[in-house]
Amino acid sequence: VSGDGEKDVLPHCNLQVYTYTCDVGKRENVYLTAERVRKEVGEVSVLVNNAGVVSGHHLLECPDELIERTMMVNCHAHFWTTKAFLPKMLEMNHGHIVTVASSLGLFSTAGVEDYCASKFGAVGFHESLSHELKAAEKDGIKTTLVCPYLVDTGMFRGCRIRKEIEPFLPPLKPEYCVKQAMRAILTDQPMICTPRLMYMVTFMKSILPFEAVVCMYRFLGADKCMYPFIAQRKQATNNNEAKNGI
């Protein structure tokens, strides 16, 4: 909206959108799809690694295949997509790599060991890559790490913190997370945590002794916040098995 109260009219743009289906957990699929993109669209200057899955099982109840799937999609895929598109960015000294991780890549909770490990891995990969680009003096290639709190997409439906705290930390709306992430990307911000309270939690986890962190988690109800989510996933699985006669 302009200063006189009238809405600004955006210039008409003939945009063309290309979509591709790719299993990012399989490196051959990533490399083949990347080659198609280069041939049909052109070189990629902005890479956003956003794919994510969760098994929803306690460690000892989780099939090995689901653990491997979580690691491949949430962490290993970042290696394949970056290896596919970074060479041209380095050649041009121009580009932007965005890693959509999670607050659970900065601090963990119980019951989702595979998810936390994969997100910690994604954060570590992103930080190391950022240092490598700086060391190579490729200042034209920017990096942004996005670490949101629980997002209301249904992925972690049932996750609950302490009911007295919940009004102050409700699940985030996807639109809000996208808006904050886009603002960080457009301003070349190296990292964005949403909400800002996550910075404080990360800082406290870094300086407090482990037992103090446990007490903080228990006060917030974050120590077992995933247990209702896991119970719901288990119930849904049992219902499907019963329905399918397995």
TrEMBL record:
Asked if the keyword Membrane belongs to this entry, the reply reads: yes
Major location category of this protein: endoplasmic reticulum
Q: In which pathway does it act?
A: Cofactor metabolism; retinol metabolism
Principal EC category: oxidoreductase
A single GO CC term for this protein reads: endoplasmic reticulum membrane
Give the bilayer topology.
Single-pass membrane protein
Q: What is its EC number?
A: 1.1.1.300
Subcellular location(s): the record lists: Endoplasmic reticulum membrane; Microsome membrane
Q: Which InterPro entries match?
A: NAD(P)-bd_dom_sf, Sc_DH/Rdtase_CS, SDR_fam
Membrane is among the record's keywords? yes
- Key words, A-Z: Endoplasmic reticulum, Membrane, Microsome, NADP, Oxidoreductase, Signal-anchor, Transmembrane, Transmembrane helix
For molecular function, the Gene Ontology terms on record are:
all-trans-retinol dehydrogenase (NADP+) activity
Q: Which reaction does it catalyse?
A: all-trans-retinol + NADP(+) = all-trans-retinal + NADPH + H(+)
Q: Known PANTHER family for this protein?
A: PKSB (PTHR24322), RETINOL DEHYDROGENASE 10 (PTHR24322:SF736)
Give the UniProt family note.
Belongs to the short-chain dehydrogenases/reductases (SDR) family.
Know the name of this protein? Answer: NADP-retinol dehydrogenase
